[in-house]
Design a protein that fits this description.
single chain; Translation Initiation Factor Eif1; 22% strand
Length: 113
Amino acid sequence: MAKTKPGAFGGLVYSTDPNFKPAQEHADEPETLLPALQKLKVRLDTKHRAGKAVTIVEGFIGTTQDKEELGKKLKTFCGTGGSVKDGEMIVQGDNRDKVLQWLQKNGYTSSKK
């Protein structure tokens, strides 16, 4: 028996059609823009985080892999943790100045909210 992820066929359990092939999902990701063309916004957020401050970078246009790579570089530069989810890069703590400094040094155009 072949091992597949549950739900790999969109909830399909069985089909009597011998010519049936499940639809393939391909989410086309936009190509990553050059750093000079990126318009990133850096802001501080404390909502739904038990009063803890986080720095959020949003507005990145590119592949998920490039977004995660940029998030990792920012977290490493700031020396903190964080994550990349819902199209946002989250860096723990109030690191807006450090993030802006790193982004500008690497050619990104960014603004502070």
